[in-house]
Amino acid sequence: MMRMGWHPTFEERAIGSTRKARSWAWPAARLLARCAVVAATAAALVLLLALGVGGLLVVVVGLLGLAICAAGIWWSVARRGPVRLLGALVAVAAPIAVLVFYVRSGLWLIALISSLCWVTASACGRAALHRARPPRSQRPVRARRPRRAVLIMNPKAGGGKVARFDLVKRAERLGARVILLDPSAPADVGVLARQAVENGADLLGVAGGDGTQALVAAVAAEHGLPFLVIAAGTRNHFAMDLGLDRADPARCLDALTDGEEIRVDLGDVSGRPFVNTVSFGVYADIVQSPEYRDDKRGTALKLMPDLLTRPGARRLDACVDGARLADQQALLISNNPYISPDELSGAGRRPVLDDGELGVIGLRVENAAQAAELALWGSQAPGLTVATARRVEVKAGGPRGPVTAGGEEARLAVAVDGEALWLRTPVVCSVRSRALRVLLPRERRGEPPPAPPVDWRKLLALAFGTAQRTESGESHT
Hints:
The chain has 477 residues and is α+β, with helices and mostly antiparallel strands. The chain has helices spanning 10-48, 54-78, 81-105, 108-132, 161-164, 167-173, 189-198, 210-223, 237-241, 282-287, 296-309, 368-377, 456-463, and strands at 141-142, 149-153, 177-180, 203-207, 226-230, 259-269, 272-274, 277-281, 316-320, 323-328, 330-335, 358-363, 384-389, 391-395, 400-404, 407-416, 419-424, 427-441, 468-469, 475-476. 38% of the residues are buried.
């Protein structure tokens, strides 16, 4: 019996809501897992039961078309002149040729049904694993309303989102002090943040891109202050992974009056903080170009042939928690791992931000055959390395820095949260576990957390009862 006058605390309500959600999620996860297995089986049966060698042809021709398309894409980015044009034509023509073959041979219905079954299996499988996965981040705690919040805003961020969403006036109406950066007189935001702390700020926040966010976040972490992310940058990966609404950055200000707090990790690259990624190799070399900001695609196409295939092109050697990773063309180190290597194309997500680990993605593709191999095998291809680590040390030959008393110091092109830098080698990346207090609005309407990639071993265990649920909602096989 509930005692009179008793009301559940914020934490008790959160625990109750989580347990209720998990009790509903587990049966749904098992049902989705079974649907995924049925759909995958149906896809295989359609191919096996096809008349003659039709099923085999569907598979072989489809894989051949994918490999040729990947080879064409490689030629279009790694070559110049007629070969580049030929590669673009091949990349477009390959999937069209596959479709034409399916239609003319009468195999289109088999290919269509099998493809729809595989798509269904993948969608159900990802949804099942997402529902069965236990919550790994700590529960938010209710935050006190800050009395002397200081927000640094970049008016040029995101093409002028600060002005477009009237962020300055909205923040000031909520009692915050706003420092508006002057684009004509660049300022050190780290220094501004330290001055704000010296003047009594009890919260620091930034309306800007990931690079600016990281510099102020480091000051907040150093002084144990909460940090407010305002998603006013162009991409704002950090804000996206926090579940914030990137389409309406003004909603982030709700945290000043109705907020909750979590702790997340803060990355470190040779003493410089980062909240998202550190890139080495091809991308880092491209962003060093003065023309990149005005013409990203044109600059990349101009530089990539030399960076990918020129004899003597720079390669990277890394030491990943003691294990050697050699001769990489590109290396991406992230503050907590992305759910898949899709981040190389800008589509990645991080399911958690407090695991105390770095994500590591290494890429080495030197010819069209290796590009085709990557398309066919994905994360299992020899040219792609996906790992996690506590510490990563990167070395490579590169332009020489200023002469010092000890001789010349090698420097390496690095893109830290999208900002182009040159750092002395070896460049060391590490992570400070749960070093940053982040203040979030209680109601967050950002993109939902990503579903994990399909793991058929886990799906079969979930579908047929060999996975057992614990009291916390975690499953064991």
